Amino acid sequence: MTFKTFRFQTLAKLLLAAAFLGLGLALAEATTIVALGASNTYGKGVARNQAYPAQLEVILRGKGTPARVINAGINGDTTEGMLRRLDRAVPNGTSLVLFQPGGNDRRKGSMDRSAEIQSRLSARGIPVIVLGNEMLQGLPHQPDGIHLTPEGYHMLAEAIAPRVAGAMGR
Q1: Does the pLDDT value for residue 6 go beyond 80?
Q2: b/e sequence 16-42, b meaning 16+ C-beta within 10 Å
């Protein structure tokens, strides 16, 4: 191996290491937001990148806010189920939770555990923005009349982006 080849390989390795370090720092600086909910959080009937959490992340990043939005929505979930999985769904270091309890408690005759979820998150120092079902009114829905279309999820993400940015201090 010539000195020129050695120098090129060393430079390439340093550049690669710097790129990985930069990517790691960018991810470390990104604010973690968890969207906790049921089917309208999950994005039932649409692709994952069309659900409101994914669209919100794109909107926030487009406005210069480095955020990672974790979609912790599960179709058909109740607030009891959300409470049971809360510690797994909301990792340490989470900066904000978007909580959309949905309507499954009423539909399934389950007890509403929303207050307990909010209390546990508050005890962990994690702010919560509650997205009530009224936020879904007037948005485009799929034929079932319950779940939003991709455009409806985009409109929801656009509507809540300023509140999310405000809660993050941006």
Answers
A1: no
A2: eeeeeeeeeeeeeebbbbbbbbbbbbb
